[in-house]
Design brief:
The chain is α+β, with helices and mostly antiparallel strands. It is 17% helix and 37% strand. The protein has two domains: 3-99 and 239-257, Probable inorganic polyphosphate/atp-NAD kinase, domain 1 (Rossmann fold), CATH 3.40.50; 102-234, Tumour Suppressor Smad4 (Sandwich). The chain has helices spanning 20-33, 50-60, 87-93, 163-166, 250-257; strands at 12-16, 43-48, 67-71, 95-99, 102-108, 113-118, 121-126, 132-138, 141-149, 151-155, 178-184, 195-198, 203-207, 215-219, 223-224, 227-234, 240-244. The strands form three sheets. Strands 6-5-16-13-8-9 form a six-stranded antiparallel β-sheet, with no helix packed on it. It has a six-stranded antiparallel β-sheet with strand order 12-11-10-7-14-15, with no helix packed on it. Strands 1-2-3-17-4 form a five-stranded mixed β-sheet, sandwiched between helices. Strand 14 (215-219) and strand 15 form a beta hairpin. It is elongated and about 60 Å long.
Length: 260
């Protein structure tokens, strides 16, 4: 928030997940600070966990408002510590981080095209007992003829500590102009651990034998089943504005995560 906002109370729109702790916090904060309609708000305060933060960012992306999360969930990597006191002052001193989502375009085995945005990652996952067989293209050039695996994902720097990290992918600095391409339980090539790609790269993944080895694609919990191929690229036209308490921004969190 700018220095000019420090002397006055901003118009805050509070949003909360369905969790009991979040709903109780919403009631208390509403009573204390009021709750501005979204079309009149200057800032959104999201109460919940990381999943609710992603839901909030997706749901309000057309408004261009900064979002300040307070943790009323579990992990809370994208959230600030919860506190009811001095909220206008915290918002005024908060540091802003801008992130771009991934755009996914997928076609299923019936020929239907699907579109979705992902702030963390786009993942492809086997649907059945047999391993997926995938062919990978980067900017139109085939880079891997066949990846046999449980799945693969493309992650943003902001999402690199989530599913990507659990799959042994790299943690990316928040300002890095790269994406992580990571395999899950790769069987062949057995030692392949993934790749770092330019942020502007177009990643296409074809599913080989999709009827016998069905695969689903997922963009931030937006699933598409029985995909034939998926394209993923960064979407610079969409800018998500996240607010963090000073000294606790995404850059610091990503560094700290590597020494945890």
């Amino acid at each position: 928030m700018s220095a000019t906002n420090k002397a006055r109370k901003p118009a805050i729109a509070f949003l909360a997940s369905r969790a009991e702790d979040a709903r109780k916090a919403l009631a208390r904060l509403n009573a204390r600070y009021g709750n501005a309609p979204l079309d009149e708000a200057e800032v959104i305060v999201a109460l919940g966990g990381d999943g609710f933060m992603l839901e909030t960012l997706h749901g309000t992306q057309s408004r261009g408002l900064p979002v300040y999360g307070m943790n009323r969930g579990t992990v809370g990597f994208l959230m600030n510590a919860y506190g009811e006191d001095d909220l206008p002052e915290r918002l005024a001193s908060a540091e802003e981080t801008v992130i771009n989502p991934l755009a996914m375009r997928a076609t299923d085995t019936h020929g239907q095209e699907h579109h979705a945005l992902a702030i963390n990652e786009v993942s492809l996952l086997r649907q059945g007992p047999q391993a997926a067989r995938l062919r990978i293209f980067i900017d139109g050039k085939q880079r891997m003829d066949e990846l046999v695996c449980d799945g693969a994902l493309v992650a943003t720097p902001a999402g690199s500590t989530a599913y990507n990290y659990s799959a042994h992918g790299p943690i990316l600095p928040i300002g890095a102009d790269v994406l992580a391409l990571t395999a899950m339980a790769a069987f062949r090539p057995r030692r392949w651990r993934g790749a770092l790609l330019p942020k502007a790269a177009l990643v296409r993944i074809d599913v080989l034998a999709p009827e016998k080895r069905p695969v689903m694609a997922d963009a931030d919990a937006q699933p598409v089943r029985n995909v034939a191929w998926v394209e993923v690229r960064s979407e610079p036209a969409i800018r998500h504005r996240l607010l963090f308490d000073p000294g606790h921004g995404l850059e610091e969190r990503l560094i700290r995560e590597q020494f945890f």
